[in-house]
Design brief:
elongated; 7 helices
């Protein structure tokens, strides 16, 4: 097994900086692709809707914004799998192992925080929770339930993700321990 890692390291080490660049570009896309839409569109529209939850125009704007948010999440949902590909390649190229404390902590965040959140987010945006498909199918009850579920998901996970992503960037750049 050591021979396999040594061979992979020998082959990939010449590409370390290129892999790091690609990984960081996808990390930035993943980390920030929906943050502007969330903070500047979803939050204000949801707050406005909550002041008059039965106002048809506010409901229409809320639904429109949520569907556009799901569309925007496509960038995030392309970037995250690319991180899962470039991350191990970067690990091999750099010779990193979980023996490095910063790397072990980064792996813990990926497995325990990012993977579960991304799986749920992918489902909410593209599969069973896709609001546009539910609206087009005429299932108003399921649509409204999906809107509320996704909103609560965002309220709960956004602070966790912001702190975790920032800490992950710190770990990867500073390598403090």
């Amino acid at each position: 097994m050591d021979t396999l890692f040594t061979t992979a390291n020998d082959f990939l080490s010449d590409y370390y900086l290129t892999l790091k660049f690609v990984h960081m570009v996808f990390a930035a896309i993943w980390a920030w692709s929906t943050s502007v839409a969330y903070g500047n569109y979803l939050v204000p529209l949801f707050r406005d809707w909550q002041r008059a939850p039965h106002d048809p125009e506010r409901i229409r704007l809320r639904n429109w914004a949520m569907e556009r948010f799901d569309d925007g999440a496509k960038l995030e949902h392309i970037a995250f799998p690319m991180l899962l590909i470039t991350g191990p390649l970067l690990m091999l190229a750099g010779g990193w192992t979980p023996d490095s404390g910063w790397f072990a902590m980064k792996l813990v965040l990926i497995v325990l925080v990012f993977l579960p959140i991304e799986i749920a987010d992918f489902h909410l945006a593209h599969f069973g929770g896709n609001k546009e498909r539910l609206r087009e199918a005429g299932d108003g009850v399921a649509h409204e339930k999906a809107i509320h579920l996704h909103w609560w998901f965002l309220i709960i996970t956004t602070p966790i993700v912001i702190v975790s992503i920032t800490f992950t960037f710190y770990l990867a750049i500073v390598k403090p321990f």
